[in-house]
Amino acid sequence: MPNPPDLAALLESPLARDRDAGPMQRQLHERLKRAILDGRLAPGSRLPGSRALAEALAISRNTVTAAYEHLAAEGYVQPDRQGTRVTELSSPALPRRAGKSAVTPATPATARRLAAIKPGTPFTEPDAALRPGVPALSHFPAAAWRRALDRAIRTASPATLGYGNPLGEPRLRAAIARHLAIARGVRCAPRQVVIAEGAQEAISLCVRLLSNPGETGWIEEPGYRGVKSAMRAGDLRMVPIRVDAEGLCASARDWREHPPRLVYTTPSHQYPAGAVLGIARRLALIAQARAHGAWIIEDDYDSEFRHTGEPIGAMQGLVPDAPVLYIGTFSKTMFPSLRLGFLVLPEQLVAGVQAPLEEMLRGGHRHEQLAMADFIESGQFGRHLGRMRRLYRDRQQALRLALTRHLKVPHEIDGGYCGLHLTVRLPPRFDDRQIAAEALRHHLAPVALSSFAVQPLPSDNGLVLGYGNTSAELFEPLVKRLSQLARAAARSGA
Fold first, then answer.
1. What is the β-pairing status of strands 237-244 and 216-221?
2. Is 470 helix (H, G, I), strand (E, B) or coil?
3. With contact defined as beta carbons under 8 Å apart, do 485 and 440 qualify?
4. Are residues 302 and 160 in the same domain?
5. Are the CB atoms for 275 and 242 separated by under 8 Å?
6. Which residue in 141, 292, 297, 334 has the most C-beta neighbors within 10 A?
7. Is residue 426 part of a domain?
8. Does one domain contain both 360 and 472?
9. What is the 3-state secondary structure (H, E, C) of 392-443?
């Protein structure tokens, strides 16, 4: 058996005695462990006796003994009659230090599907001006929400600290079903409602429950990037279907040549172009989906905020037993970090997916779910929606006026009848991605319209401007800055 190694080679540097370095026992343990993993302590090497090492380091023998015992518990060393020796370990193939020959270790491969998931826009703080998809956070009734949370925690039993119903709290599922029946014309019973962590998880659930790798999923072009990620993660073949002034425009040829398993659409307010899917196209889409055995994913993400007339009704409730899975979220109506959304299953699916869902989900955020149910049942949610509709209507009109007055480049404005954003189309010579990237330097966060398309056309050039979390008095100076950035982009590309 090899003799005990040299102390300097063992520790590389003296143990630190200042408070910030941590306890001596932890320092010694980490140094010895690293020496074993680095190969400086070879398998079978005998460590110095605890008394000898303690005297050499001028530390307590108990400290050395405790470090040795910790290493033995982790399997790095093994005590025997002759002392403590290093265990035989499989080499982790760690790179060697500079100056020594190194063998490049093999890198474990990631799933091939990850290469198909393209990076989106850089993360920006929620308070960045003109960022789409962010509600008016400063106008949220935090005090009322805090009281709802307090009631949920105060009145709930200790059992609510454990796992809940995997499909969500029954009280919230019932409250959502009642709200959707009145506000959105959705036909559902509470048992059809599944609580998810926002719309993104609800979409992913649809993909996992209803499709197989290699099957076809239709997406809107241009459209929501999150559904692309969900379908790519599900190994689906994505077919982008063009959107026009009336929403998703699927032809007979599309159905014949690319029959889908899943069809994703935002019919009440197409994202990002803002179109409304008309009744003729809605009924035709439902009929074709039935004929081809397809499922429609209806994402109704911000339809509560209709600025002209009453909200457009959901497609899900148009006809009985429609093959439509309805998705909603509280990220826009409440606040994004709440991470609560919901999926309404067709009645004919409930029995078949109940057991898989109970295995796939775990039922968390129970107090938040109970507070959300209270918020809806008490009328606070409805009053909050009313206030926000008025606020967003005013902000939308103010942004439209600012664009008309101060965007001194050719442009067309899409949308504005619903939701939290406007889309401004620009001629191709104004590079939308360059403008968006430059805007970030000025704490502005518009999103390039072309980034929403799989196969962008020249008409997909523009900016998606959020007005939910930006005060109306800021629109004029912000639009002036965007106008300057657009002109600069055109000059640089000339």
1. parallel
2. coil
3. no
4. yes
5. no
6. 297
7. yes
8. no
9. HHHHHHHHHHHHHHHCCCCCEEECCCECCEEEEECCCCCCHHHHHHHHHCCC
470-491 residue pLDDT tens: 999 999 999 999 999 999 988 8
Query: What's the average model confidence in pLDDT over 296-315?
Result: 88
Pick the closest to residue 176 from 424, 338, 375 (CA basis): 375
Domain that holds residue 409: 383-493
Say whether both 391 and 377 belong to one domain.
Answer: no
Q: At residue 8, does pLDDT exceed 60?
A: no
Is residue 199 located within the same domain as residue 341?
yes
Please name the residue that has the structure tokens 């409730």: 317
CA angle 371, 376, 378 (to 5 degrees): 90
**Tokens standing for residue 196:** 């998810």
Q: List Cα–Cα distances, 461 to 130, 401, 429, 432, in angstroms.
A: 17, 21, 9, 6
Answer yes or no: do 403 and 295 share one domain: no
Neighbours of 126 (CB within 10 A): 15
pTM above 0.70, yes or no: yes
Q: Please indicate, yes or no, whether residues 166 and 281 belong to a single structural domain of this protein.
A: yes
> Would you say 293 and 208 are in contact if contact means Cβ atoms under 8 Å apart?
no
Question: What is the domain-level CATH number for residue 462?
Answer: 3.90.1150.10
More confident residue, 205 or 109: 205
Task: Look at residue 12 in the predicted model and tell me its pLDDT.
Answer: 64
Residues 28 and 45 both lie in one domain: yes
Look up residue 37 and give its two tokens: 């993993």
Q: For the chain, what percent of residues have pLDDT higher than 90?
A: 73
Q: How many residues does the chain have?
A: 494
pLDDT confidence band for 123 (50 / 70 / 90) = low
For residue 476, how far is the Cα from the chain centroid? Answer: 32
Task: Check if the beta carbon of residue 365 is closer than 8 Å to that of residue 337.
Answer: no
Which tens digits make up the pLDDT trace of 364-378? 899 999 999 999 999
Is the dihedral angle over the CA atoms 54, 60, 61, 63 positive or is it negative?
Answer: negative
